[in-house]
UniProtKB/TrEMBL annotation:
Pfam families: MarR_2. This is Helix-turn-helix domain-containing protein. Residues 15-110 form the HTH marR-type domain. Gene3D superfamilies: Winged helix-like DNA-binding domain superfamily/Winged helix DNA-binding domain. The lineage of its organism: Bacteria, Bacillati, Actinomycetota, Actinomycetes, Micrococcales. InterPro entries: ArsR-like_HTH, HTH_MarR-typ, WH-like_DNA-bd_sf, WH_DNA-bd_sf. It comes from the Bacteria. It comes from Microbacterium kribbense.
């Protein structure tokens, strides 16, 4: 979350997603969307890059419309970079490489939430989070409808936070089961592949 900067930024282009898989860009982007303004020097210290190298990456993120410069101040100091929205929403279909990197980023973020041991004092910090898994059969259209409704609820609560409450991370993950492909379709794919192989080797 990035303060009260309005709506989430939509990432609906594969080229955008490819540009985000760079480790330094992803690390800085997550820090900025956590509400932490960063100069190129601070971002470089966070990622291990030089300020000049980090400046290049920050400008590329700005070109994609993901971040922007903070308003000018009267002290003449370097203007830090800030997030452009309240969060990131990815709707593009990734290819195999981008999808694999994104999953590693996701698992890293999940581990930070669920990998912490229980606190000695439960009143100090709830542990670790609720967990729910539901499996159902839905068409592509109905999946999109359900996700849109869930996102409306998330956005509603995100815009009306409890200022004194602890921060809570929510992960909304969905996907079609790999082993859920109908057997008839799988058999047809195998037969087509065998026929094609026979033609190419005849």
């Amino acid at each position: 979350m990035a303060g009260d900067k309005g709506e989430p930024v939509e990432i609906d282009d594969l080229a955008q997603m490819r540009a985000l898989v760079h480790p330094a860009r992803w690390t800085v982007l997550m820090a900025l969307y956590d509400g932490e303004p960063l100069t190129a020097t601070q971002a470089g210290a966070l990622t291990g890059l030089t300020p000049s190298a980090m400046s290049y990456h920050l400008k590329q993120l700005a070109k994609m419309g993901l971040i922007e410069r903070a308003p000018k101040s009267d002290d003449g100091r370097e203007r830090p970079w800030i997030a452009r929205g309240s969060g990131l929403r990815m709707s593009a279909q990734p290819d195999e490489f981008v999808g694999g990197v994104m999953m590693r980023h996701l698992m890293s973020a999940l581990t930070k939430v669920i990998g912490a041991p229980p606190p000695k004092d439960p009143a100090e910090r709830p542990w670790p989070a609720g967990y729910s898994q539901t499996r159902m059969r839905l068409s592509k259209e109905r999946r999109k409808e359900m996700l849109a409704r869930l996102q409306e609820i998330v956005d509603e609560y995100d815009k009306d936070e409890d200022a004194d409450a602890p921060e809570v991370d929510f992960f909304l993950i969905h996907g079609v089961r790999v082993d859920a492909v109908p057997e008839a379709a799988a058999d047809a794919d195998v037969e087509a592949s065998d026929e094609d192989h026979a033609r190419r080797t005849a």
